[in-house]
Amino acid sequence: MKKQQIETIRNAALSFREAIVACKSSEFNLWLMRDFPSGACTTTCDLLGLFFDEQGITGVEVAEGIYRSPERTHNWLEVDGLAVDITASQFPDHHLPVYVVNIEIWRNEFQHQFSSPWILPHFPELPGRDSQFNFDYQMICSRLVMPKTK
Question: Three-class SS of residue 74?
C-alpha cells in the first residue's frame, strides 16, 4: 500500500474519532456510544465502516479478537493489510487515539479470532435501531473536520 493511501486512511479514522469525541455523550441515541471508547468497539466499527465506504475506502473488514481474557472481546477494522482501531484507548496499555498498524501486529495483540467483510448494518429485529444508527452517524458527520490533502 502506498504511503498516501495509508495517510488517507489514518486521516479519515482520526477525523472520525475526533468527531465522535466532539459529540456530547447524552446526544447519542445508541447507548453503547455514550461511554466511548469503552464498550463501543462494535458499534464504532459499524459507524466508521460506513464513513470509510462513503470516503471510497473499499475492501474493509471487521475483525474480532480477545483482549487478555475470553470475556473481553474487541473489534477493529482491517483494510489492505492494515488494522484500523479508534477504540483501543479503552485498554490501559493503549494510549493513542487511533491505531493504523500492520494487520499481523494487531491480530497478535488482540488474539485475532476472525474477520468478515464490513456490510452496512441493518437491524430489522430491533425497531427504531436503524434510525438511531442513522441519527448518530449524521450527528458525528456534522462535526467532522477533515484535514486538507496534499
Answer: strand
Burial class (CB in 10 A: 0-12, 13-18, 19+), 2: exposed
Residue 23 DSSP one-character state: S
- pLDDT tens, 87-144? 999 999 999 999 999 999 999 999 999 999 998 877 666 666 788 999 999 999 999 9
Rounded Cα distance, 13 and 73, in Å:
21
70-75 long-range Cβ contacts below 8 angstroms, 24+ apart:
73/113, 74/41, 74/110, 75/41, 75/42, 75/44, 75/45
How does DSSP assign 76-102, residue by residue? EEEETTEEEESSGGGSTT---S-EEEE
115's grid cell? 474477520
Considering the entire predicted model, what is its pTM? Answer: 0.92
Nearest partner of 45 among 107, 112, 119, 105, judged by Cα = 119
